[in-house]
């Protein structure tokens, strides 16, 4: 429904006269209000099964209008119909002499759609393609999302902020003197400025806003729940960026419109969250322009669309917090230490031997004169992550924090050794993406569950089997083994010392232990 309704001007809400308003009716109507669909037709169907009762229709209409008022829908038309018998579909029905409104088709054919509304908004055109068939022509193709444009008008490209003047409006049928919303065009500019796919060309006087942190409403559309602190791909217009939900503020009970505290969103749930992006984007609030304020979320691993949303406003910290350039950078720290910084990430089941192997690796590197730091799962939970439990959401946040701390240590020129179960591929991938190329080495400490459970040095598997320890990886919480790790360690065939030697040898072959 979200996909279909995102470009609609009118919505038809179908209600069974025998059942009245259902949870699904309220959910669909709430989505209509979120998507800013201005015209709503409430078709009360199966009137023949309630003897065309005017009282039943009046009760449903009154109840719906009261709910619609709460969610901000005001242009409501209620029509009693019978799909089987055709009452009030095309022709007025003799069975409803008490109804004096239009038929369904008559209303759909005559309702006023304000096509000029978008044209009155400031100019917006997301760039879909940089058109350069030859050295003499450079144009920027896209569909106008709002406003109008003519040659000679000043424009600003967001998020870069560069300005120029429109030289030509090019189409397959020739140049235009003016172009308006929903037309597909190619613009050429008077100046050579850098513009890429995903940028937004906007009017210079009222440009699109730019930010990287937002409050947004999200509709979740996947069986696997939405997790705060997990990275998703966010597609808005023609631009794709990385977005993290941090945090989920609340979800909405569509029956009561109550704001309910929540740590995740399940299938079909609607919530309000904070989105943090990996780079600034050009946008408008969704209520102003659905094309430049609406987005979808995509799972990084499966590439499935998992959610859709609307940007409400940018957070103040998005505008007030800026990256501070530092003269003593990572290269300077690495040069002083005479080494190449990196992150060595050991992942595997509890009891696989990660911490033991990591400890031996650190001692070997220390002997070689390398500057290192070991981040161990249990040790970090005594301080930095002592507030986190072992639910899936907490595990995601646990790894996010560790990855960010590890990145800071790599920036300080260290070889950081991370020994965490880190059960989910998505979070390990996010950690990798924080690093530069060849700085992240994933080591899969591969120990079969039966072997790890037999070792059970902390007695955790026994507690989990007795039901005393919930959300334990390998028992009632999944472990997703790496698909393409840089190194796989078989602990059933290698001792901790042999495994550490293999890892150090790999680092040498990788060029990370050579002096700089």
Short description:
By secondary structure, the chain is an alpha+beta fold. It is 26% helix and 30% strand.
Report the span from N to C terminus: 57 Å
Rounded average pLDDT: 90
Class of secondary structure makeup: alpha+beta
Q: Judging from the principal axes of the Cα atoms, what is the shape?
A: flat
Number of strands: 24
Count the helices. How many? 14
Features:
516 residues, 6-stranded antiparallel barrel, flat
Layout of helices and strands:
Blueprint: H1 2-5, E1 10-16, H2 23-34, E2 39-45, H3 54-71, E3 75-80, H4 104-110, E4 124-126, E5 129-134, E6 137-143, E7 148-149, E8 154-158, E9 162-170, E10 179-180, E11 184-189, E12 200-203, E13 209-220, E14 231-236, E15 239-252, E16 259-260, E17 270-283, H5 290-293, E18 294-298, E19 305-314, H6 316-320, H7 330-337, E20 342-347, H8 354-367, E21 372-376, H9 377-380, H10 392-411, E22 415-419, H11 425-434, E23 440-446, H12 449-455, H13 460-465, E24 487-490, H14 496-509
Helix pairs in contact: 8-14, 10-11
